[in-house]
Design brief:
CATH superfamily of the largest domain: C2 domain
CATH topology of the largest domain: Immunoglobulin-like
Helix content: 10-25%
Mean pLDDT: 90
Largest sheet: 4 strands, antiparallel
CATH class of the largest domain: Mainly Beta
Number of strands: 18
Strand order of the largest sheet: 4-1-8-7
CATH architecture of the largest domain: Sandwich
Number of helices: 6
Oligomer: single chain
Structural class: mainly beta
Low-confidence stretches: none
Amino acid sequence: MADCVSKVELSISCENLLDKDVFSKSDPLCSLLLNTGGNQWVEIGRTEMVKNCLDPKFSKKFLLDYYFEQVQKLKFGVYDIDNETFDLGDDDFLGEFECTLGQIVSSKKLMRPLLLKNGKPAGKGTITIFAEEVKDNRMINFEVEARKLDNKDFFGKSDPYLEFYKQTDDGKWQMAHRTEVIKNNLNPTWRPFKIPLHSLCNADLQKPVKVDCYDYDDDGSHDLIGSFETNVEKLQEASQNSTEFECVNVKKKEKKKNYKNSGTLRVKLCQIVKEYTFLDFIMGGCQLNFTVGVDFTGSNGDPRSPDSLHHISPNGLNEYLMAIWSVGMVVQDYDSDKLFPAFGFGAQIPP
């Protein structure tokens, strides 16, 4: 019988989100929560924030374990980020959608309206969730630079960034990665980055890949500098022989007879490596050692008080003991000698 657990990658995009900002557009982020029973939800991930955009395509993916025999309830919450705090409670709520992972997997691509807390539609806002099973844990390490990019800004130079897309089975382009923005530079070198092989080409090195180069604008109206199509096999070859890819702006090419390109992009590194899992390390002989350190300073309170973390409880358990017990029960299976050193500090030792 086939194994009933699989890794599933979820890609998220939204359209027609509510505009909560007065002088610009919303800055959306998507939060993913997992139901742990009843009305209890725990956040398991967030996408990046996309500035000034009501139709975001998030580049960050959610990677989940899918259990066929379990009902895994998920909640996708979309927020307009107004500050740098981690708490989403002080950000504007743009809508949410609840479903099970099974519904997403069985549909492969699920598009649904976003709802407000009162159950009413969040305007015309929708969320689209695309699911793919992950069967390959290899990564592609990239180092990329560009030269002589077109200048799209009147006061200064372009602020370029790259978007990598893979082609889906229906011929559409799905974002796999977005680089950082490099300000005021027509010859940028982006920080090294990595993309899962399945995210970029489904482990098919000849599957089409599209690269777009944009000039970032604060108001969200990013200008396309140029783009090109290739595949991972050609990207690897280019990294070895210093071949450059021409970034072509089709609209500009149609208007100018002598148009050549809007700059070139060079892939300095395109290396496929295996991303080892925790299980790979354990089965390869990696050992875990559990060492306990207990703070006995007076700041923890009188052990006779129920409010103290060191409270000597009638049932023999306090919060410190429960934490040590919970972690130790898990780690002991990976510790060869089953001996756990324990240290204490800050205590007053009796004379």
